[in-house]
Amino acid sequence: METMTFVRTLEARALLEATSIVRLVDAIDAMIADADRRASDDAIAEHCAMSWRRRRDALLTEHAALVSGAIEPSC
After folding, report:
1. Which of 4, 14, 33, 40 is most buried, taking the most CB atoms under 10 A from its CB?
2. Backbone φ and ψ of 34, nearest 5°
3. pLDDT digit string, tens, across residues 42-71
């Protein structure tokens, strides 16, 4: 395989992974919003919302690294 083809493939892979992360973040945001609505009288929902916020933050950090080129996509 040519070097340029390999590099383009890695760039495409990074774009696909970044797009997948954005979709996951959207789904997690919806779960957080639902848990927040129930958190006032449901300790488990409150705990889940906090946990999902941490996971969302980690995903956004990974997304930023993929987009910036700081990390390479998993193969």
Report:
1. 14
2. -65, -45
3. 999 999 999 999 999 999 998 888 888 776
Distance CA 59, CA 55 (A): 6
Q: How far apart are CA 21 and CA 36, in angstroms?
A: 22
Would you say the C-alpha torsion 53, 55, 56, 60 has a positive or negative sign? positive
* HSE, side-chain direction, 13 A CA sphere, residue 39: 13
The gap from C-alpha 44 to its chain's centroid, in whole angstroms, comes to: 23
| Contact call for residues 45 and 39 (beta carbons, < 8 A) | yes
In terms of DSSP H, where are the helices of the chain? 3-38, 43-68
